[in-house]
Amino acid sequence: xxxxxxxxxxxxxxxxxxxxxxxxxxxxxxxxxxxxxxxxxxxxxxxxxxxxxxxxxxxxxxxxxxxxxxxxxxxxxxxxxxxxxxxxxxxxxxxxxxxxxxxxxxxxxxxxxxxxxxxxxxxxxxxxxxxxxxxxxxxxxxxxxxxxxxxxxxxxxxxxxxxxxxxxxxxxxxxxxxxxxxxxxxxxxxxxxxxxxxxxxxxxxxxxxxxxxxxxxxxxxxxxxxxxxxxxxxxxxxxxxxxxxxxxxxxxxxxxxxxxxxxxxxx
Length: 267
Description:
This protein is an alpha/beta fold. The chain has ten helices and eight strands. It has helices spanning about 5-15, 20-25, 75-80, 95-115, 130-140, 160-165, 175-180, 210-225, 240-245, 255-265; strands at about 30-35, 40-45, 50-55, 85, 120-130, 150-155, 200-205, 230-235. Strands 1-2-4-3-5-6-7-8 form an eight-stranded mixed sheet, with helices on both faces. The longest helix has 18 residues, at about 95-115. The radius of gyration is 17 Å and the shape is globular.
């Protein structure tokens, strides 16, 4: 597990954007595409070729948020040699979580088939999600719905094992609304899809929000038992919102840790 002392060293190793780029708060203009059930935004530099790709899934308790909730991620990632794709997916109550997971898989298939035309490498796609988006990234990635995905970056959710969450009293109102049918809990739990084989390299971060540390550690251990390469990030210095919002800020510890992980996973 990455501790705070190690994070200081990681931050020093991070290749940050220039001071001018770091001071920008407005995202570069994306190209917006309809991939079927919803839209996605593609951020790419003109003339780029064969760059690694981050596909980002926003949070919002499965019922709020949209693809524009990217903060400074576009500037930071483009300045550090990535393409970024941020997706919409249908929200509760229009679509249940199972449908949302299917939307994520459709978006991924679209990106894998088309990203080369925007300068990205379809064989170097990492899927990153925050909160509800983290759950959807883990669920689709582990159940085989993201074929060829190079890495997963999971940022702060309690929804790795819904049955265990309910037993521990952690099925709060937001989770209960998203997962109202106990008969579906196992199928919608990323932990239930771990199995015994290795999965793509996975980065798991947790904040100081209630219950995040324990479930993240348990999930990381389950993945590690399969031989999967797992990086566990102690983000107890962050709130649930800041652990996502601060990504890309100069000197941010989580950003440094993720970039080191992505460099190893994507080359």
